[in-house]
Amino acid sequence: MEQKTVQYKRTLRGSVGAGVGALLNGNGRRYFILEHKDASKYYKAGDSQKIIIDQIELGRDKNCQVRFDDESFPTVSRRHAAIIKDGDKWKLVQLSQTNSTFLNNRPITTEWYLENGDEIQLSVGGPRLGFIVPQGKQSLVSSIKMTERLDLFRKQALRPYKTAIACLTILLVLAVGGLSTWNVLMKQDFDAQIANAKEALTQLKGRNAELEKLMNEAAVEQARLDSLLKIKARPINKTIVVNRGNSGEASNLAQYEKDVYFIQAMVCAVRGENVVPLEMKNGGYLGWSGTGFLLSDGRFVTAKHCVEGWKFDTEKALDQQYNSLKDEMKPLFLAALTNTDGARFVSYIIASSPSKQPLKFSSEQFRVSRIDERKESLGEGYYRVKASGNGGSDWAFVNTGKSGSIDADYSLSSSLPAGARLEVLGYPRGLKSSGGSCLYGSCQTSGRGLNGGLILVSGKNYEHGNSGGPVFYNSNGKFKAVGIISFSVFDNMGGLTPLCNLK
User: Quick count: other Cβ atoms within 10 Å of Cβ 390?
Assistant: First the structure.
């Protein structure tokens, strides 16, 4: 039945917001399939497109999610028609004012509800598409693999805004010097907009079920996860421990391997309810890797710079990151960096264990120290918050409610003897053992107690990538965690954050 309703208007909620919902709440959403019955430049006859968002456009315009080329179908308008979700149904909407749209060989002038098996044709002699609604469990977005879902999200939810965002960001560029991009694009959140943009980002803290489902699925296929996120390493004073051998007694640390986690973090720009991963020119998203560990008291611990890495980056590193981003991402990057127009950075973290279920966090869930933070001018009246980790402030933890096997000795962490051997577990440059576990390393204290709030060590085997990992001391035959891998002091010396600072 043809319907006369409110005039169609492309919305961020219907595209990006719905796409986020498909990513994070696939069990609660249905999708449909468009089967291409005619070949074109972009599709072969018989090709199928799974549509996971609530609003798509069909036409020759480059921003249409279902696009046709000028040569194959010159009678297709640039924005010819749209398919939008209306409750539990989908409607075909006529957009072109010059060329007809046919449904089952009958022209439509406004809107028409679609049924499974309908045939859509764009203009006389134009391309034909079959409208197919999968049945049963296969009709749910959750039946689509997570990697495929993400690819569909990029192609469908984001495509209409690759040009529009640049225009929308001009206003912010004039006011801020450049800020707005994917964030403007993701008008209704990355993680909390689950059902038609009703969920808020703050639900990451109190109700993380949707994010957990997403991360669990991604973590099941670790190999795909790396390809999925394509996380890029960044030189932000992250350190790792390289295995240069260890003492025989260090083998007793094997019991703790399950509670040493490999961290992968993806940086997003957030404004209000909008959460936008920062997409890079060569694919993937801005982020980093590191190490964290789970204490027996239920706290997941890592280094602060593994959680809020942007605060530790040098200006040179920031310039490199900025230049590596897609052009439409750059304004929003600047906005989040300078906390302008309500924008800020948030990292989303997957922590993978060799034998336990992965843990998922956002940086806003962590408790961190702010004593090392200061404002740094970026010129033209803009500032960013910069952290140093000085004074043993390079720590972060979040209460998980899940008890680990690693015991901390807070008192001992501030009173270690000079020359004491320390054992380290972690993931250098994301490397793992053949069994998927962390690698071993060691160092020794270079003095008694703390120096400037840090445990100074010598003979370190540190590289970029493993900061946040646990440091153990053999106390009367039992290994106790005393510190967190933090940063390098000199080539041969490093600084560890003592766990007493967590108290």
Answer: 14
Distances 69 to 56, 66, 109, 286 between C-alpha atoms, Å = 17, 10, 23, 33
User: Where is the domain boundary, 359, 381, 399?
Assistant: 399
Which H or E run includes 214? helix 209-220
pLDDT above 90 covers a percentage of the chain that reads 49
What type of residue is 271?
R
Q: Please give the mean pLDDT across all residues of the chain.
A: 80
Which one, of 481, 442, 484, lies nearest residue 459 by Cα?
442
The Cα 462–Cα 241 span in angstroms is: 4
Among candidate residues 363, 481, 464, the one with its CA nearest the CA of residue 425: 481
The domain of 350 spans 157-223+258-399
Same domain? For 271 and 122 the reply is no
pLDDT band of 164, cuts 50, 70, 90 = very low
Sole residue written with tokens 């006529």: 94
- pLDDT of 334 strictly over 50: yes
- How many separate domains does the chain show? 2
| Cα maximum dimension of the chain | 86
pLDDT, residue 272, reads 84
Domain boundary among 155, 170, 185: 155
Strand runs labelled E in 110-220: 111-113, 119-122, 128-132
pLDDT tens string 126-154: 999 999 999 888 888 888 887 788 778 87
Whether 122 and 68 have beta carbons less than 8 Å apart is answered as: yes
Which amino acid would we find at residue 120?
I
173 and 188 co-located in one domain: yes
Confidence of residue 206 (pLDDT cuts 50, 70, 90): very low
Question: What tokens appear for 7 in the block?
Answer: 């005039």
Q: Which range (36-40, 203-207, 324-328, 403-407) has the least confidence?
A: 203-207
CB 325 within 8 A of CB 232: no
Considering only CA atoms, which of 287, 264, 257, 428 is closest in space to residue 353? 257
Six token digits for residue 30: 């249905």
Q: Locate tokens 């279902």: which residue?
A: 66
Least confident of 283-287, 384-388, 403-407: 283-287
Query: Which amino acid is residue 404, in one-letter code?
Result: G
CATH number at residue 128: 2.60.200.20
Which distant-in-sequence residues (6+ apart) come within 8 Å of 471 by Cβ? 422, 423, 424, 455, 481, 482, 483, 484, 485, 496
Q: Residue 264: which of 235, 296, 236, 222 has the closest Cα?
A: 222
